Amino acid sequence: xKPDKLIDYQQILSKITxxxxxxxxIGNVASYIPELGNIDPNKFGVHLTTIDNQNFSFGxxxxxxxIQSISKVLALTLALKLEGGNLWRRVGVEPSGTAxxxxxxxxxxxxxxxxxxxxxxxxxxxxxxISHLKKPKYDFLEFTxxxxxxxxxxxxxxxxxxxxxAGFRNAAHINLMKSYGNINNDINIVLDFYFNLCSLEMxxxxxxxxxxxxxxxxxxxxxxxxxxSSRRSKRINAIMxxxxxxxxxxxxxxxxxxxxxxxxxxxxxxxxxxxxxIAVWSPKLNKKGNSYKGMxxxxxxxxxxxxxxx
Length: 310
Ligand code: DON
Known about the structure:
12 helices
């Protein structure tokens, strides 16, 4: 096996992205959040950052987009710092095998969501953050800017508002959990925080830089900032591996073989612990709500670079 330094990431990614542009994209842009439906479906970006700070960019890699559920990983990271292991009394670590917005399990499992990345689980994490933070929206944004070392990160109020107007399913989730006593704060405050969190915007380049700490035992290898303990970094990666793609987590493990997280904005972040983080963006989603081309690119990438974790 070639040492990492000898892998020609530039050449491999150029070839994969060129091939991928030719593929007929059978996905559809998410439209259940009306503002997301306005995005140009042909946007396409990739950014790879290695833990020794080599960077490779392709296409629209510096254009910001709505990272949606990818932000749930950052919310979990902050919640673990503030609440610690007690958090696991209110949300599980098991794959759901159901869609990200499915209500079915929640009733059976008495308002305890399967994991922190399905919508119900992320709403519980938001509730926990609200209980800890003085100014939750501001404080969460500051946390994200701080770990990214990037003051130019922001929510998109247009998208948050658009989701709020159409957020009936998330309202159903939170009401059900409130009835089981698993939400402590006012449900409208939690929903507002959640919609803002999902509206966070980043480019592929910003995503890859922000998530590099999960490739390096919780420490940003470029700034040496300890963002989370190595034990928790390991656990967050494990949850991404098992739950990051909802009822397609098995398929992502099978084809790509990395911990990762998708968002309905068409972004995917994937991590190779000890090697790199890679972000892709292509807005058309497959039926499970994951970027169609994004999954294809990552599958080819880990095969050609022999860098799946398996
Ligand atoms: O709550 C929602 O439905 C969206 N704000 C986030 C869903 C999402 O990104 C799922 N990921 N693939």
